[in-house]
């Protein structure tokens, strides 16, 4: 099947255009760079932004890992992996350490990534101000003027109403003291992994036609008030039923037959490695 397509499916002109957008995104951390999102044999909103980034960057010597909600075996992850492999014939792996490119949806791997690795995140809504301002032209001006009062107000209202900030995913963060950025629908448990990381983070939104990036060793701070510090999910007293881990992001699973609730590592590859 590889002979039926251009290498990595996209034409070379499209890949060059996406790589130029990536370079601009790396040069201006947190800034949303518009790009001409191409058509793919998958519906927009199903990871086309991340797929286009991966297809534009991947080469014959790369090794690919694809995860969805931390799992290598989900339908989304398996089909994206099959598609990329069909068009490139690259090696695929489930071990984070062995991959040069990791494409993910909703999670950052538990294993810290190295400087020679790239993490590509699929993003549905890249604009962090969309929840407070629906107009694109207005949000662009707000970013340009550093007018982030509405999003601070949103955090404050949540704090007043519930006694804590209730945002659990897509928790906004400030990049290099300049741009507020949406870290994609990762849980806020993963937000601290973005700060001063070794690897390059790339975010692709195919439906919204935006690319943004966090280069290695970039300052990324989750928004919080001075007297109410940022708090990630707390799994105190809980552990993975399979590997016993207490310091990873855990999924709560409910057994409808027995009524039992138990916890399991979201990162299935990490869980398997811990078990040996």
Description:
With 276 residues, the chain is an alpha/beta fold. The chain is 26% helix and 18% strand. The protein has helices at residues 12-27, 48-57, 75-88, 136-144, 149-162, 268-275; strands spanning 33-34, 63-68, 91-92, 101-105, 118-122, 173-175, 179-181, 200-205, 210-214, 220-222, 250-254, 261-265. The chain has a seven-stranded mixed beta sheet with strand order 1-9-8-5-4-2-3. A three-stranded antiparallel beta sheet has the order 7-6-10, with no helix packed on it. Helix 1 (12-27) crosses helix 2 (48-57). The radius of gyration is 19 Å and the shape is globular.
Tell me roughly what share of residues is in helical segments.
25-40%
Distance, first to last CA: 36 Å
Task: Report the mean per-residue pLDDT as an integer.
Answer: 94
Q: Let me know the number of strands.
A: 12
Q: Which percent band covers the strand fraction? A: 15-25%
- Rg from Cα: 19 Å
Strand order, main sheet: write it out: 1-9-8-5-4-2-3
Largest sheet: 7 strands, mixed
**What gross morphology would you assign?**
globular
Low-confidence stretches: none
Order of helices and strands: HEHEHEEEHHEEEEEEEH
Provide the structure class.
Answer: alpha/beta
